[in-house]
What does this fold into?
Amino acid sequence: MPFEPANAPPVGFRKAIPLSVKLTVVVAQDALCTTCKEPLRNLANVEFDHVPALQLRLWCEEVKDTVPAANDPAAIEAKHADCHAAKTFGGKATKRGGDITEIARTRRLTEQQQEFRRRILSKGEEDAPVSTKPKSRWPTRPFRTGGPHGQEDTRRQARRRRDDAPARHH
It folds into this structure.
């Protein structure tokens, strides 16, 4: 059974958002930006954000669209251009959490998962590629004996102290 990667939309897939969908989204949001809650005064400065990002959605081969659909008004938000840029590219201090970063992270994890599954499935095959990484041994060290505060005592030292102690008689 061959492994199929997570079905992301094909690269370059993007449908233009129809004007009717844009108007539906703006009206549903009461003409307010979903990030800063400020009014969307000039619609020329408004951008429409797919939530979740298109490349983070699953791809349905039957209908040739994402799940949820790329132009579903429930999965689109109207934002100011700077608010949309902050969500897409991440904040000023860190890029973590931006759509671009999450898309790259998802692709990287998917590739690592594919490699892992390939290695696991090939373990039973005789002509499977052999790893070139040398085996390493875990370092060894002696066990500690002694007191609760890290005083190291060997068993021999403990036995000598016990034998050298004066005998108690009651």
The chain is about 30% helix and 10% strand. The radius of gyration is 31 Å.
